Amino acid sequence: MSTEPSASARRRDDPRDALIAAIEAQLAATAGFTGCARLSLPVRETLRTVPREAFVPASERKWAHANRALTIGYRQTISQPFIVALMTELLGVGPTDRVLEIGTGSGYQAAVLSRLVGAVFGVELVPELAARARQTLDALGYTNVAVRVGDGAAGWSEHAPFDAVIVTAAAPAVPPALVRQLKPGGRLVAPLGPAHDRQMLCRCVKDARGALTVERILPVAFVPLRSNPPPREG
Ligand code: SAH
């Protein structure tokens, strides 16, 4: 009799597979709202291989493979993996796309996108978080991600236009600069609504005349898109 664990036992024991299973269960449960019942193969493989534990502080590492948001300091969070997965699927990106991310935080969402697209341009308001994200991305060899410090509401005009824009902090409405910097046919995914209440995750598409159609996807809770960095802390 073989003492090797079976493939399915190995999968049960691997926390990365358990996380994928949790994401897929939540996608299945919310598919009635989102239209996204399961992970596409490229997104599934990317979520399995980008090491989330490298993007969270040591104190949070034991939860790195739990399907929950975690604190990254400066009163900010790395999003719940289900939300990262859903937003990535909603962006509908391809291998040559150039993607703008507003609210780069830990750099995890940017790293996930970087495996699926040509280039990612991240804007982060808190200089310390941007520096830490840069360091993590460099250490792991994610070379097609650029990060700059600044107010993401202005986008990153030097690198526009973008095929897709992802906003990972909540705003009452889509900042106009982000619409301008999106290509016709481009997708923008963002939590829209009040800063300190639930928001609606929305998927917007820019038409040939420059107008946005907005599709409401799912209620969510994000940290607010701010104009000034929060008070300093660890
Ligand atoms: N995408 C991140 C998590 C986002 S948390 C990740 O994968 O870890 C939201 C982030 O948006 C925080 O890091 C916060 O500092 C940043 N933020 C808030 N307002 C901003 C603004 N106006 N411009 C750019 N970043 C902003």
Task: Describe it.
This protein is 31% helix and 24% strand. Strand 8 and strand 9 form a beta hairpin. It starts with 6 loop residues before the first helix and ends in a 14-residue tail after the last strand. The chain is globular and about 65 Å long. The longest helix is centred in the N-terminal third of the chain and has 20 residues. It contains seven helices and nine strands. By secondary structure, it is an alpha/beta fold. It has a seven-stranded mixed beta sheet with strand order 5-4-3-6-7-8-9. The structure holds S-adenosyl-L-homocysteine. The site of S-adenosyl-L-homocysteine has 24 residues, from strand 2, helix 5 and strand 4.
